[in-house]
Amino acid sequence: MLVYNMALNAVWLIWALSWFAAAFWSAPTSVRKKTDVFTLKRVFLGLGAAMTIPPSQAWTDLKDAVPALTPAFRPLLIWSEPALAALIGLTGLGFVFCWWARLHLGRLWSGTVQVKADHRVVDTGPYCLVRHPIYAGILWSGWMSAAFHATPVAAVGATLMSIGCFAVARVEEGFLREQLGAKAYDAYAARVPMLVPFLPTRS
Fold this sequence. Notes:
By secondary structure, the chain is mainly alpha-helical.
């Protein structure tokens, strides 16, 4: 099990390092929206990821210090080794989806709520499947990691990640409607679901 935990940790670490290393590849900012929701997203994603990925020594120490929390760290399912390997692969697949979206968006990508120079509604590539494919990929990876551990604390972590991504996605959409035109963005939203592919969209 330790080897599989290390492999899952490595998948998250490789994605995080590569993602932040590429943060400088973006177009100049045209308009930036000041919002506390982005900070809230960081908190929810950070805390959620800490609860979802393989437990750190801090979580182990917490569990030892507060025995009442032990059931929250106890797996509800015991996976076979092939199933663990499959869940690691599915976690990586979510990050591949994130990178597909980021590369497709190119220099229009930003890490905050802002509009880049020459920004437009992008509805091709992964953006024809969901309106927020980067968040969708992160959430997929988070839930696959939660399934890997199959603990209540991991499920809570993935839920926190979902709340954070949904909250900031709603703020981004309101901002994009203002900056790119409500008619164009609403037409896009009517065709493409927000975070889960193939779900019915609003009319």
